[in-house]
């Protein structure tokens, strides 16, 4: 009797396993193909999104580099004009200061003192412009570096996106 019960249990177990391993139906296969196609489409769209993001980053990087180079040119120009102003004002100030010491006329002394103040102000302005120029050059160099870095990152994003898209295209089986 134990043998009969054991045989029945084994028979039921095998028949149940047979049902569980039945081949997929046509509907199951179509559904699986549809899910696979949706996943491939999603992968391709993610790649395309990376390409667009990379292209945008490259474009912004080029603009940042351009702005940095503009800062460099403006900074160099400020330094040049500042140095010229410093030198000419210094020379004018020194020359006028020498002759002012020998001035006996009060009106002439006042006029020369006024000119000396003007030269001193121009001298200070030249120094300020030189410093502003240095700051612009520093900012310009930072912008150029930042822009070039963004361009490199953008190109990498574009490459990753294209590889992702190609992977999706190669795995698609219509």
Automatic annotation (TrEMBL):
Entry keywords, A to Z: Signal
Signal peptide stretch: 1-20
Protein's UniProt name: Lipoprotein
Species this protein is from: Zhongshania borealis
């Amino acid at each position: 009797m134990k043998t009969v019960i054991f045989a029945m249990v084994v028979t039921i177990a095998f028949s149940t396993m047979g049902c569980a391993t039945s081949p997929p139906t046509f509907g199951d296969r179509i559904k699986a193909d549809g899910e696979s196609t949706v996943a491939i489409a999603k992968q391709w769209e993610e790649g395309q999104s990376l390409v667009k993001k990379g292209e945008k980053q490259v474009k912004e990087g080029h603009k940042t580099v351009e702005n940095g180079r503009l800062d460099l040119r403006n900074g160099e120009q400020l330094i040049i004009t500042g140095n010229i102003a410093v030198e000419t004002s210094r020379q004018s100030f020194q020359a006028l200061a020498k002759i002012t010491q020998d001035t006996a006329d009060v009106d002439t002394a006042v006029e020369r003192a006024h000119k000396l103040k003007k030269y001193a102000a121009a001298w200070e302005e030249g120094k300020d412009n030189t410093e502003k120029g240095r700051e612009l050059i520093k900012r310009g160099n930072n912008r150029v570096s930042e822009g070039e870095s963004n361009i490199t990152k953008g190109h990498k994003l574009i490459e990753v996106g294209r590889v992702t898209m190609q992977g999706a295209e190669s795995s698609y089986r219509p």
